[in-house]
Amino acid sequence: MIPWVYLGKAIIPNNGGELTLSRRDEEFSIKLSGIRGELMNSRVYNSEQELATLGCAHISTTKNAHVLVGGLGMGYTLAAALGATNNSATVTVAELVPEVVQWNKGPLGRCAKNPLDNPRTKVHIGDIKTLLATRAPTYNAILLDVDNGPEGLTQRDNDWIYSLTGLKDIYQTLLPKGVLATWSAEPDNLFTLRLKKAGYEVSTRIARARKGKGSRHTIFLARKA
User: How far apart are CA 66 and CA 141, in angstroms?
Assistant: First the structure.
């Protein structure tokens, strides 16, 4: 059995806990200390790709589209967003933990084929709330994978994003017919109701952790009416 090799750690701001990055041959793992254990694994990423594919389906041919990705992780959502849009589109990825960006600039980046190196990628290091609370129509699609879903796990500050107030603010940052796509580990009927109350047209999709197998994750698709 090939052993895991510790590569680094990072402290999540605002008492969010500690992330650790490990590698076993070509497999990478990011774990959160003390709460859940493994957050991400480079062998399990299909639902992260589906988040981008579904969230950007309406702008595949839109000229100069702008996509916001919340949470870099292992880069799979970012890479899929770049692949789902044309060469005139810009994809901004917001990541709270600077070390996660550095990890993706190193060997970890090969997992998703180094999407940070794409000239259409822009990186915002910091709280995504600063981009979502402007109320200025900016994005054709917003793809959120910043936590375990509508109930924050690593960051209690993320609760604002899933609140009625936050969803209304996010609504204003979407351009006409824009889509807010949110990844969740499980269904959440109350979140669906909040999305509708905030003015969105809402549908959900089930995405498997791996193609055709693995855990069933939920993708909320909320369109600006």
Answer: 7
Burial 30-43 (b: 16+ CB within 10 A, else e): bbbeeeeeebbbbe
Q: Is the pTM of this model over 0.90?
A: yes
Quote the pLDDT of residue 148.
73
**For 122-175, what is each residue's pLDDT tens digit?**
999 999 999 999 999 999 999 999 887 786 544 455 789 999 999 999 999 999
